[in-house]
Amino acid sequence: MDECDFLIIGAGIAGLAAAAELAPHGKVALIEQEAHPCFHSSGRSAAIFVRSYGNEVVQAITARAGDLFAQAQAEGLFSAFAPPRGVMVVTPKGSPNSGEAPFREYLTAQEAARLMPCLDAGRIDYGWWEPGACDIDVHAMQTGYLRVLRAHGGALIAEAPVRSADYRGGRWHVEAGAHLLSAPVVVNAAGAWIDRVASLFGAHPLGVTPMRRSAVLIDPPGDVDIAGKPMVVDVDETVYFKPDAGRLMLSPADATPVEPHDCWPEDLDLAIAIDRYERLTGNSVSHVHRGWAGLRSFVPDECPLAGPDPDVPGLHWLGALGGFGVQTAPALARLISRQILDRPREMDVDLIRAIQPGRICGRAEVYRPELSARS
Ligand SMILES: Cc1cc2nc3c(=O)[nH]c(=O)nc-3n(C[C@H](O)[C@H](O)[C@H](O)COP(=O)(O)OP(=O)(O)OC[C@H]3O[C@@H](n4cnc5c(N)ncnc54)[C@H](O)[C@@H]3O)c2cc1C
Questions:
Q1: Which candidate, 95, 119, 172, 307, has a CA 20 to 30 Å from the CA of 221?
Q2: Dihedrals phi, psi of 3, to nearest 5 degrees
Q3: What is the CA(300)–ligand 1 centre distance, in A?
Q4: 62 lines ligand 1 (CB under 6 A)
């Protein structure tokens, strides 16, 4: 039996960030069922930081995370932000929707097509532009977080699916692959599997639904230089595309509810993506490269779950990170660790209330509200 202070289940970006936050304060075991970290959602994302993305709660957490990305860079932990490429929301001709939102500037159709030459100004009415949006280097985050974990004596335990858990003497005793581990505190960061893992600890599932999102790499039009050009989303969020190492990453923005699994794209979804791209831009797709899919997991209010389980001792949730898990992970991991260590939360009490797991089952009270930023 390996005795630890903190067990973290799931080495996606959320679990990695939590491991790095907790490692200076005790012995951490980061447990992963796959052979490598970021094998599932965290290794399959568009990896872009967009301040206007998601609801107001997600936007507030993203803003906080932006400060922590900057801090990580200043401290030499990792440098994850690429130079801004911006994101553009465009309104196809005749669409009744606008796309106006905080952090976005208005663009005429001509300005939009100048910024992203794949677009045809004749096919869009106007656009909204968030110039500060930038790619996130997920590998740099992963490497930086693992370095902190190991520097403090923590370990990544791969190929170790958690199969059972038992609470005795104030500690969780966990069977993970061939390993037996124990700790008083467990962070459940199991992504699409978060409800299943929670059940192993006797917690009520919170209704997290994994949704499949597909993507494919295509060649851009032959005469267009796309380097450093913005990501483009149509206003109804039915298609988006983004330059990716000389090609375009294209997605139909699908959200198909599925069971947690190692998912692959359906041919039909990729065909829909190509059709929508061709209609939006007027370009024909000449060559299709590899496709992939990942799971974006949501609860109905589309806010994250970050905080203690309302009933089960020592169990903390960190998940339901939808389409914003990479850009919010630093802030959510900071909050989780501060709650576990009983330190000032560095987050507003209303925000903590909006993301605490207890809200899902009508238990919205915040533990130790006096430690939140506005107490
Ligand atoms: C196509 C696509 C585009 C996206 N674009 C963006 C974007 O631009 N910006 C952004 O911020 N987000 C984006 N996202 C969302 C982002 O990828 C996710 O929110 C984020 O990766 C979730 O991280 P996670 O750590 O919670 O989950 P995961 O990365 O899935 O990690 C969970 C881990 O838990 C492990 N696990 C599960 N069960 C067990 C068990 N029993 N024992 C041990 N280990 C277990 C899994 O193997 C997995 O490695 C996108 C997602 C997709 C699919």
A1: 95
A2: -95, 125
A3: 18
A4: no
Q: Are 120 and 178 in the same domain?
A: no
Share of the chain above pLDDT 90, in %: 92
- Say how far apart CA 90 and CA 248 lie, in whole Å: 17
Degrees to nearest 5, angle at CA 174 with 171 and 177: 160
What is the per-residue pLDDT for 200?
A: 98
Give 322 Cα–ligand 1 centroid separation in angstroms.
Answer: 9
Tokens in use for 179? 């390993």
Pick the closest to residue 20 from 302, 278, 330 (CA basis): 330
Is the CB of residue 326 less than 8 Å from the CB of residue 43?
no
DSSP state of 149: H
Q: What's the pLDDT band for 375 if we cut at 50, 70, 90?
A: very low
Taking alpha carbons only, the member of 128, 44, 43 closest to residue 86 is: 128
Q: What does the pLDDT read at residue 321?
A: 98
Take atom 26 of ligand 1 and give the residue whose Cα is closest: 191
- Least confident piece of the model among 209-213, 285-289, 300-304, 364-368: 364-368
Task: Tell me, using a 6 A CB cutoff, whether residue 193 lines ligand 1.
Answer: yes
Ligand 1 centroid–CA 127 distance in Å is 30
Q: What is the pLDDT of residue 238?
A: 96
Same domain, 156 and 191: yes
What distance in Å separates the CA atoms of residue 176 and residue 173, rounded to the nearest whole number? 10
Going 57 to 62 to 65 to 70, the CA torsion angle's sign is negative
Is it the case that residue 239 has pLDDT exceeding 80?
A: yes
CA distance 332 to 357: 13
Domain count, the chain: 2
- Note the pLDDT tens digit of each residue in 320-373: 999 999 999 999 999 999 999 999 998 999 999 999 999 999 887 788 888 998
Residue 244 inside a domain? The answer is: yes
Q: Are 164 and 192 contained in the same domain?
A: yes
DSSP sequence for 127-144: EEEETT-EEB-HHHHHHH
pLDDT averaged over every residue in the chain = 96
Ligand 1 centroid vs 108 CA: distance in angstroms? 36
Here the ipTM equals 0.99
Q: Are 247 and 263 within one domain?
A: yes
